[in-house]
Amino acid sequence: MANRTFTPLFICLITLFAFAGSSLAGDLTTLEDWEPSFDPSDAEYTYILSNVDHPAIAGIGVGYKIRDRVWELSNGRLYVDFRPLAQLGGEKDVVRKLKMGAVQGMLCSSVAAANVAPKLGIVNLPFVLDTPEKLETFRNTPELFEPFSNAALRQGIKVVDFTGYGSYGWATTTPVRSLDEAKQVNFRIAQAPVNTDIYKAWNLKFTVMPWPDVPQALQTGVIDGLDHTPMVCSITKKFDVAKYFTQINYSQGLYIHMINKRWLDQLPEDLRDILLGVIEEESAKARTNTEIQQQAQIKAAQQDGVKFFDLNAKDRAQLAEMAAPVLEKWGERIGPDYLEKVLSTLSEENR
What we know:
The protein is an alpha/beta fold. It has helices at 8-21, 58-73, 91-100, 110-113, 132-140, 142-149, 179-182, 193-202, 214-220, 230-235, 261-266, 269-303, 313-322, 324-334, 336-349; strands at 45-50, 78-83, 105-109, 157-167, 169-172, 186-189, 205-208, 225-228, 244-247, 252-260, 307-310. The longest helix is centred in the last third of the chain and has 35 residues, at 269-303.
């Protein structure tokens, strides 16, 4: 008998309830261009994969690439039902569903990942995984990636890979070319423990705010800065209000691909190999495309009048020094030996 994860009716009900209770849902008419070219109704297995962001971002659009390749390689046995734009709710809601198995996978933002398991917070620590090159070393070094991959197993979650959404900096409504100017700004930061600790250590004003509240807060002046990446600010039109961007590059924004471990273990071995193999290949391509897309979005924003600044080396070094207590604090949660292994390996590989 075919093993179906959900009946179509149950899937519809979950989606409807998610929309009723979540202001995160985007305009689903934008998804028409990503409709599958095949009929998935006869699939033996369904893998529901959730994300809150827009598939125009390379690190999110990868979900559709995974869907199409898995369908082809599995001869239509496994359907990756990708649901971007918060169709199944916000990240906290989806993490809960993922643990229960109601959703089988999610591309979780790195800022939220530390809420799942502290060790996952290592990717948010300032000036640790701060370049695409360091990310690749981290991903392709088993003694670094495997502890990260297994960090949430007690929650019933396996981390299998990650994609990205660019380099973190400051989008602001007034120019910020120095730390002194940054101290005049009220930055919106994500609902994430690592980020809160970072901004406290930097002694900067900040407001913890859900992403859907940002547009109105920017327009009304409740906030006048964003801690985010230029690509996301460009694609989501934040540069319509925040006309300046200071490139800090203190962290790389990631979408961490998490899977319900019990569901993955119960998937037939041949389909499991196909799914994991495709995820690995397409995620690597997406990480490469992320840097290309980021540069294209920066160029487009500049053409639209957004001004970009590089924080000077002295101030950047001061930020790194001020953040040292954050590394010490999170090192205890992540595991001091593991953090030291990551730091030493990346230092050796990126000399």
